[in-house]
């Protein structure tokens, strides 16, 4: 079972690998203060570094799906829209 720090590290590594091909949107970072655990998964929101560090609203991402880390296996993936809707219905997003 992964702890919070291990899961956050896995999420960040996954995001770094996946975002390399995104062009200008590739400078992204996990937002640790908004991460949470739900149903055996570590859920990690992220955004563009220029928005997070400099407040550049024009760089804020929209419609990006969160990273989910399975706390048992360590497997990482992006959640889908159905999962995002379910999290919003439960006021987790």
Radius of gyration: 13 Å
> For this entry, what is the oligomeric state of its chains?
single chain
Largest sheet: 4 strands, antiparallel
Strand order of the largest sheet: 2-3-5-6
**Class from helix and strand fractions:** alpha+beta
**What is the overall number of helices?**
3
> Which percent range fits the helix content?
25-40%
Overall shape: globular
Which blocks of ≥5 consecutive residues have pLDDT under 50? none
Q: How far is it from the N-terminal to the C-terminal residue, by CA?
A: 24 Å
Strand content: 15-25%
Mean pLDDT: 95
How many beta-strand elements?
6
Along the chain, the helix and strand elements come as: HEEEEHEEH
What would you note in describing this structure?
This protein is an alpha+beta fold. Helices cover 33% and strands 22% of the residues. It has helices at 4-19, 49-54, 81-89, and strands at 28-30, 36-38, 41-44, 46-48, 67-70, 76-78. The strands form 2 sheets. A 4-stranded antiparallel β-sheet has the order 2-3-5-6, with helices on one face. A hairpin with a 5-residue loop joins strand 5 and strand 6 (76-78). The longest helix has 16 residues, at 4-19. It starts with a helix and ends with a helix. The model has no long low-confidence stretch (mean pLDDT 95).
